[in-house]
Task: structure prediction
Amino acid sequence: MEHVLSSEGFQFPMDDAGRTTEDADQEGGLQKNAEFFFENIIVQVERQLFQIPRRYFESDSEIFRDMFSVPVPKGGSPDGSSIDHPLLLEGVKANDFCQLLRVMYPPSFGKPFSLTLSEWTAVLDLSTMWQFEAVRALSIEEIAKQDIGVVDKIALANKYQVTDWLLPALNALAQREDPIGEDDAGKLGISWALKMASVRECAVQSVVRQGGCGNCQYGTRCYYCGFTTTANAPVAANGQQGCGNCSSGTRCYNCGCNFVVTSTCNTGRGAKSEVDFTERIKTVFGL
Result:
């Protein structure tokens, strides 16, 4: 049985009367269902071929929609129309592409996905690159459920612009007692590692002479009422030495940084975990 190409570039078998199955269907009064008549495309990733429904790639991704809208030269064959003319996706690993397809076309209806952290990361990478917004949102949600270290989470948040993760993860790293190590710098990049080191100095460099803000060196003026405290100020409601006037805590009047007011330098273990670095992080990282 011979084959001919449709106007979209897809092959239909031709019967002995010289009619394609498409012609025969139309002559017999049959119509293609607008929602559930799928046209497939042939995709090549590395040395592997995939035959998949075109619809979701075209409807859910502006990148692929533009790709499919490129005019085909007269007498040419559209990419993806056959095994001889596959749509070649370069710079992508076949295994990563498989993970994306597993999410787009779940093998088992109603069952939870069983992808690993690295597999979900691959899905996040490809869905971000190709602008599959719904798949990207799902991958972010699933990665958040995984047991992921704070440095890895910061690296992912920075690379893929997951803004909801970034500030809380940076604050958690600033509060971590262990110093920024070589592995951390490798994942974060030198620039971000140096910025984090600057943020963490906020706790170590407490102003001993005043027991004030280690962020801006401003002193101990209360953020809320403007009252100036001293190093031996009364213990505030939050258990730290704070404002003896309004008992609101230890937020700096000048920069908003929360600091630990002590009469001596508080750099023992646990000191950083008591400090909220959020305002300092916003300033240093420009968030």
Observations:
- Residues 38-111 form one domain.
- The beta strands are 2-5, 11-14, 40-45, 48-53, 87-89.
